[in-house]
C-alpha cells in the first residue's frame, strides 16, 4: 500500500519508468471513485480508463479499495481485446483506510512474443532463400520479421487474419499446420508452417500463433528440372527401346539372309555337280557316236542312215560339252558373288550384334540416370 501523500512521488516514478518497460505499461491513479491521472508508454496504450471516468466498483481497482489490499490479476482477452496483467495497489490515508488506488496495467505477452525481436532477425537469415516470421494474436498479426532476401509486404503488423489463412486454421484446431502454396498467391512458391501458442497458465487456451514462411523457388526450379530430366530420359529410353527392337529385327533378318545365302551356295555346288555329270554324259555320247560312225562305215550302203544318226549324236555331244564350261563359269560367278555377299552379311550380322549389345548398355545407363532423377525429385520435394 502507498500513502495518499506519496502521489507526487508515484507520478514522478511512473513518468521515469513508463518508457523503460520493454512491453510498455499504463499507469493509473484513482482517487475515491474517479480516475484522476493516467500515463501510457509510447509502445502501449489502451483507449480506456480516461481521466474523469468513474471507477467500476466490481473492477480490480474497486476490489482493492473495498478489500484494502493489493490485488494482482490477469485480465482475459475477451474483456479489452488483449491479454493484460493488472496490479492494483491501495492508496491509504493517515488512518490506513483505502481512499484510492495506484494501478499499473501491462500487456501480457507470450514468452515467444517477448523474445521475438531477439531471435527472429537471426533466424530468418539462416535460410538460404530467406524467410518471414510472424506472431499473431487471435485476430491479427502483432509481430513480423522479414529477411534481406524475402519479405511478404501484404502480411505485416496489423494485418487482420482471414478465415482461410493458415493462422486462422491453427487457432481453430489448436494444432500445428504446414502447407505449400504455388506462386499464384504470393508471386513465388512458399512453404508455410504455423504453430499454436498457448497460455502460460492454461495449456488448453490458445492465445496466438507463430508462423514461418519460407520461399521454395530453388526447390521448385530443381523439381521442374528433375521432372524435365525425367521426361527427357523417358523419351530417350523409349527411342532406344525402339532402336533396340529395330536392331533385333535387323539381326534376325541378317541371320535369315545368311542362312539363305548358304543355301544358294549349296545349290550352286549341286549345279556344278550336275554340270560334271552332263560333261560325263557328253563324253560317253561322243564315244557312242564315234563307235556308231565306225560301225556305219563297215556296213557300207546299208549303214548310211545309221551314219547320219551317229553324226547328229556326236554334234549333240559337242554342243552339250561346250555348254558345260559356260554353266560352270556362271555357277562359279554366282558362287563368288554369293560368297562376297555372305561375307558382307556376316559383317553386318556382327555389327547388328554389337549394336544390340551397345543399345542394351545405353538402356541400362538410361535406367540408372532415370533412377538418379527420381532420387533428385525426392530430394527436391524435401527441400
From TrEMBL:
GO biological process: signal transduction
Residue ranges of the region described as Disordered: 335-361
GO-annotated cellular components: membrane
Biased composition (Polar residues): 346-361
Keyword terms of this UniProt record: Transducer
Span of domain Methyl-accepting transducer: 218-383
Record's keyword annotation contains Membrane: no
Compositional bias (Basic and acidic residues): 335-345
PANTHER family cross-referenced by the UniProt entry: LYSOZYME-LIKE PROTEIN-RELATED (PTHR32089:SF112), METHYL-ACCEPTING CHEMOTAXIS PROTEIN MCPB (PTHR32089)
Name assigned to this protein: Methyl-accepting chemotaxis protein
Amino acid at each position: 500500500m502507498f500513502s495518499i501523500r506519496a502521489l507526487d512521488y508515484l507520478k514522478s516514478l511512473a513518468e521515469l519508468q513508463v518508457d523503460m518497460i520493454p512491453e510498455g505499461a499504463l499507469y493509473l491513479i484513482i482517487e475515491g471513485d474517479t480516475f484522476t491521472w493516467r500515463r501510457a508508454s509510447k509502445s502501449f496504450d489502451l483507449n480506456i480508463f480516461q481521466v474523469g471516468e468513474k471507477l467500476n466498483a466490481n473492477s480490480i481497482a474497486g476490489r482493492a479499495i473495498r478489500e484494502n489490499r493489493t490485488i494482482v490479476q490477469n485480465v482475459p482477452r475477451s474483456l479489452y481485446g488483449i491479454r493484460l496483467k493488472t496490479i492494483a495497489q491501495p492508496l491509504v490515508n493517515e488512518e490506513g483506510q483505502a481512499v484510492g488506488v495506484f494501478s499499473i496495467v501491462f500487456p501480457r505477452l507470450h514468452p515467444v512474443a517477448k523474445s521475438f525481436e531477439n531471435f527472429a532477425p537471426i533466424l530468418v537469415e539462416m535460410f538460404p532463400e530467406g524467410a518471414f516470421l510472424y506472431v499473431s494474436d487471435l485476430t491479427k498479426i502483432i509481430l513480423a520479421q522479414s529477411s534481406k532476401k524475402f519479405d511478404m509486404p501484404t502480411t505485416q503488423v496489423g494485418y487482420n487474419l482471414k478465415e482461410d489463412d493458415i493462422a486462422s486454421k491453427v487457432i481453430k484446431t489448436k494444432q500445428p499446420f504446414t502447407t505449400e502454396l504455388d506462386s499464384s498467391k504470393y508471386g513465388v512458391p512458399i512453404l508455410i508452417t504455423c504453430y499454436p501458442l498457448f497460455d502460460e497458465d492454461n495449456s488448453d487456451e490458445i492465445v496466438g500463433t507463430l508462423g514461418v514462411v519460407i520461399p521454395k523457388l530453388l526447390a521448385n526450379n530443381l523439381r521442374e528440372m528433375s521432372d524435365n530430366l525425367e521426361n527427357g530420359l523417358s523419351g530417350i529410353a523409349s527411342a532406344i527401346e525402339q532402336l533396340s527392337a529395330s536392331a533385333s529385327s535387323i539381326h534376325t533378318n541378317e541371320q535369315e539372309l545368311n542362312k539363305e545365302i548358304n543355301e544358294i551356295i549349296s545349290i550352286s555346288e549341286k549345279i556344278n555337280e550336275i554340270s560334271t555329270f552332263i560333261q560325263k554324259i557328253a563324253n560317253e555320247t561322243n564315244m557312242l557316236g564315234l563307235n556308231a560312225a565306225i560301225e556305219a562305215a563297215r556296213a557300207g550302203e546299208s549303214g548310211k542312215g545309221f551314219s547320219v544318226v551317229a553324226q547328229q549324236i556326236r554334234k549333240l555331244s559337242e554342243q552339250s560339252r561346250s555348254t558345260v564350261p559356260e554353266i560352270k563359269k556362271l555357277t562359279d560367278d554366282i558362287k563368288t558373288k554369293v560368297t562376297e555377299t555372305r561375307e558382307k552379311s556376316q559383317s553386318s550380322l556382327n555389327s547388328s550384334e554389337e549394336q544390340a549389345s551397345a543399345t542394351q548398355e545405353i538402356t541400362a545407363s538410361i535406367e540408372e540416370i532415370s533412377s538418379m532423377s527420381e532420387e533428385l525429385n525426392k530430394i527436391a520435394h524435401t527441400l
